[in-house]
Amino acid sequence: MTSLDTAAGIRLDLHARALGDMSSGRPKRLVRALEYQAEDLAPEAMEYASEADFLSVLRDARSTDQLVELWRKQLTRWDYSENVPWSVHPPRTDERRADIHALLGIGDETGKRLDVLVPVSKAAGTVVISTEHTRWYTPQSLQGRPWYWPQYRRLLVDKGWPEDVVAGLDEATDRVVERLADPTALEAYQSKGLVVGYVQSGKTANFTGVIAKAIDAGYRLVIVLGGTLNMLRAQTQRRLDMELVGRENIMRGASEYESDYADDPAWSQGKFATFGAMPSTLGAFDIHRMTTRDDDYQSLLQGIVALEYEKQEPGLPLYDPHNLHRAAARLMVVKKNKQVLTKLVKDLRKIKTPLSQIPVLIVDDESDEASVNTTDLAKPNAERTAINQKISDLLRMLPRAQYVGYTATPFANVFIDPSDTEDIFPKDFILSLPRPAEYMGARDFHDLDSDPSDGERTYANSNEMAHVRSIVVEDDDDTCLQHAMDMFVLTAAMKLYREDKGGLGDRYFQHHTMLIHESVRQDDHKELLGRVTGLWWNAGYLGPSGRDRLRELFEADVAPVSAVRADGQAVPASFDELAPYVGPASIRIGGDDKPIIVVNGDKDLETGEADFDKRSIWKILIGGQKLARGFTVEGLTVSYFRRRAGNASTLMQMGRWFGFRKGYRDLVRLYLGRQEAMGKKDIDLYEGFEAICRDEEAFRAELAQYSVPVDGHSPITPDKVPPLVSQHVPWLKPTSPNKMYNSRLVTLRSPGQWQEPTAYPSKVSDLRHNTNLWTPVLDSLSAEPVQLSYHLTEKGVTHRYEALAGRIEATRLLDLMASVRWGAPSQFAPHLDYLREITTRAPAQVDDWIVLAPQHAQAGQRIGLGTSGRTYSYFARDRRRDPLFGAISDLKHRAAALRIAGALADPGDTAVESLTAPCRGALVLYPVVEPEHRATLVEGGPLDPSRVVMAFGFVAPASARSDDGSVLRFATIDSSQEGVAIIDAASSAATR
Q1: Are the C-beta atoms of 215 and 148 separated by less than 8 Å?
Q2: What's the per-residue H, E or C state across 651-709?
Q3: 227, pLDDT greater than 80
Q4: pLDDT of residue 455
Q5: CA-CA 20 to 30 A from 222: which of 159, 390, 619, 945?
Q6: Pick the residue with more confidence: 734 or 340?
Q7: Residue 799: strand pairing partners
Q8: Between β-strands 221-226 and 127-130, what pairing exists: parallel, antiparallel or unpaired?
């Protein structure tokens, strides 16, 4: 009789073999696969080669059991696989999983048990905006060649990455590599693309996977442009060496004690990838490093020789498969520095291997920094900026080079002139990576989806209340800075408490840091170092005064936030329970008399090395540009930020507090300046970051909306992306003005979508004109308001309000809309073009519109308009920048309008349903009174028409779609068209 442990071992081995045979292909009949494998095992193995045995185990299994984990790995791969011949259903859907079950030939109960233990991941996939591309990167083309990608995949799994995250990375990197040119193709093609991630969200993992797959496919020179700073270049080099290149390629036969990583703890702890021998001796190929962690590219004879490629078949070009797959790959991580890149360009011109034969991959990390040309080439004698010129030189001299930029702030890249063939505009593809699970990004510090009707904000429902603290200081007042430092010590004690009492274990939190970022000026850092040093040594953390402050801070801030946001992590019941950890925390930070590290390039001022790879760091970091982009500040828990910036890209990259905060997410605090001087005005940095978040989310949403293929073709191409970029606050442009290239949007079709223009005029004559246009419409509305409501099932809330209602013919509304005056006519023009299209075409797609004028529930805020003596509710709104307002509508007003236009299901509200009809749109009117007129307003009295802004939002009928499904029509500013400012791009209109 077989013991339970033996039976489990045989069963696990049997299923591993069966699934292993299916791992690179389609699901196959499970029982037949098990029986086939059982023939090669012990005689008793056949006893476990049945569905009945599998089902009996699943009935009592837990999600962490080894057999379930084995199935999770393979099911997830099948769930995520794109463009498979064995299923017509999209990845990560219940329908795809049902196809898998059917191909496996398993019964309903077995399938249901598997689905409970291994649920279908519904994570968002990669968004792709792309031109048509040749499909060359297929499983068939790679048969027997993959080496570095499987090794990298295995390393990530061994590090504890969840299988669905690894599968998502596999899918996302496939989307990039398949859009590169075939490295073995006879005809050279240069693909250029952009991958958009989130700040500190794992972009390096993505391009490491892309490099692994690219060299497996045949790319033999990889140039990684690793930022503008030595520390960032070194960080990228180490990551690639550790996870991709591996020990054997690093040592190349030398002693491991001679490695440039001999002093790196991860090297001695065996955390670097290893293959067991040189890959070339195992049937694969080696990677030759042209740079090391400490040394950028050097222009030496040895370097030139190392760039020479060996060819097994001298009569054939290097890109021929007979040569390519036997040749070693070269990898270099190069700083974006003119001198360094000049050396590289010079050496490449000296090698004997024809450059036209080398398949090259250029990965540009932080591609919107330094890489983008900021010179107007239309001006006489204009030259490209230095780094952009060197990248252009590389692309020109390497015709088989592929360029892939990586950034979290893509606006500069999409504003590049598409017609400049020597520049880095992503002409072939733009990929937007999904937001990773457990990632803490901009929206986690803001309440973007909050609704005033949801009630009072609390630590549980408000991200701002939980994580953000305001800095409002006068002159030399360091109260807020001391408060932030106290929080840093308190959260350090909380981490030690969690290691001890929460079961995390000693040194679980290797790093604990605070970042102070007030300026990029080194003189300011010197002064700041003096202030912070004084505050630290006078804080009294080991005495009664410091303990009293920490007790108050714990009870008022840390305890209530962690009580609702700790997510299962240990939280002390009182400060007295935490107090024993305060002393060790303070000593861990300042026990070496060096609690502060200045990172700014000033050798006389720098007080230590922020090398998170070599040692555990529990310190306060003061920095500027060196800590503002790309560089990962590990263990960052408290940020004190007062640095100003004039564009979204720069400000967003300073957000080092974004990232993964496993085990201490509830402890993260962001201290932000709320009244920082910028020129002659004060700005609110929290408002700035919220605006960036809205800009970014709007951009990603637009990409997602227009990425859905229509008839197998991409809806829009990368050159049509610039008009999708928005700006939410006046002082924060999407990117530097000298990086902005514009296209013009001609038509924006928005069936069943809420649209809200904001560019209203400010001239007295224009305001009076618009008010007089709309007053007859207001007069025609119902005498009494109707009660409208809509229940949002997903949110569990009901939006309810009163509104005056009426109806207007579509042709009359179109005439009115065409007469409205605007502060920036170009904003509404694409909407007007769409409204004209659906109203005048035959047959018309809109018959009439319901007009709603929301009325306040409480008395007050009413004005008289027109000559009828009627009064209407007005709305107090401010312009964010002339002529644009911020949001005008109230969220609770939108659902009823969407239902009237047929965009939402019947809510069961009779008043709303009485207003619905086919081919009907909805328009919501908002008489707005700006601040300068509100102070002198007489409640309920008449108001001069020139003092009212007649704002509105609208929803076109959900059925009002174009025949071909097109959504956008563009005119593109293209410098290649001499003498022509605008090119009508309707022939290549976007489609959905």
Answers
A1: yes
A2: HHHCCCCCEECCCCHHHCEEEEECCEEECCEEECHHHHHHHHHHHHHHHHHHHHHCCCC
A3: no
A4: 55
A5: 159
A6: 340
A7: 790
A8: unpaired
Token pair 């034969």 is found at 357
Vertex 831 angle, CA 825 and 836, to 5°: 110
* 438 in Cβ contact with 397 (< 8 Å): no
pLDDT bin (cut points 50, 70, 90) of residue 680 is low
pLDDT higher than threshold 80 for residue 324: yes
Residues 6+ apart with CB under 8 A from 286: 248, 249, 278, 279, 280, 328, 329
Residue pair 878/885 in contact (Cβ under 8 Å)? The answer is yes
Residues 6+ apart with CB under 8 A from 386: 338
Is-contact 716 743, C-beta < 8 A?
Answer: no
Query: Could you give the percent of the chain with pLDDT greater than 70?
Result: 83
- Lowest-confidence pick of 120-134, 198-212, 219-233: 120-134
* C-alpha count within 13 angstroms, C-beta hemisphere, residue 540: 8
Confidence of residue 81 (pLDDT cuts 50, 70, 90): confident
Q: What SS3 class is residue 441?
A: coil
Measured CA distances, 626 to 180, 368, 500, 519, 610 (Å): 32, 16, 35, 11, 11
Instruction: Give CA–CA dist 33/73, Å, rounded.
Output: 17
- Residue 377's pLDDT is 55
Q: What's the pLDDT at 740?
A: 41
Gap between the Cα atoms of 231 and 38, Å rounded: 54
CB atoms within 10 A of CB 389: 18
Per-residue DSSP letter, 718: G
Q: What backbone phi and psi angles, to 5 degrees, belong to 403?
A: -115, 125
Check: CB of residue 353 under 8 Å from CB of residue 318: yes
Query: Tokens 């529930």 sit at which residue?
Result: 857
pLDDT digits (tens, 9 = 90+) for 792-829: 887 778 899 999 999 999 999 999 999 999 998 888 99
User: Counting beta carbons within 10 angstroms of the beta carbon of residue 540, is it exposed (0 to 12), middle (13 to 18) or buried (19 or more)?
Assistant: middle
Please identify which residue in the block is written with the tokens 């990368």.
Answer: 718
Per-residue pLDDT tens digits for 117-172: 999 988 777 877 788 888 898 766 665 578 999 999 999 988 888 888 888 899 89
Note whether 430 and 194 are within 8 A (CB): yes
Average pLDDT (293-300) is 75
Question: Quick check: helix, strand or coil at residue 347?
Answer: helix
Q: Counting every residue, how long is the chain?
A: 992
Coil, strand or helix at 787: strand
Average pLDDT value for the chain: 84
Token pair listed for 170: 């596999």
pLDDT given for residue 303 in this prediction: 54
439 vs 397, residue with greater confidence: 397
Q: Dihedral angle at the C-alpha atoms of 828, 832, 834, 837, nearest 10 degrees?
A: -170
Q: How far apart are CA 485 and CA 535, in angstroms?
A: 9
**Residue 612: pLDDT over 60:** yes
Residue with tokens 């009664």: 544
Helix ranges (H only) for 864-963 are 894-900, 910-913, 931-934
Confidence of residue 375 (pLDDT cuts 50, 70, 90): low
Residue 718: phi, psi to the nearest 5? -55, -30
Residue linked to tokens 């949403």: 701
Q: Which two tokens stand for residue 897?
A: 């309008």
**What mean pLDDT do residues 294-310 have?**
71
In whole angstroms, what is the distance from residue 551 CA to residue 60 CA? 48
**Crossing angle for the helix pair 4-22 and 30-38, nearest 10 degrees?**
120
Q: And the tokens for 287?
A: 């990677």
Sole residue written with tokens 């490629």: 309
Scored b (16 or more CB within 10 A) or e, 354-368 reads ebebbbbbbbbbbbb
**In terms of DSSP bridges, do strands 676-678 and 512-517 run parallel, antiparallel, or are they unpaired?**
unpaired
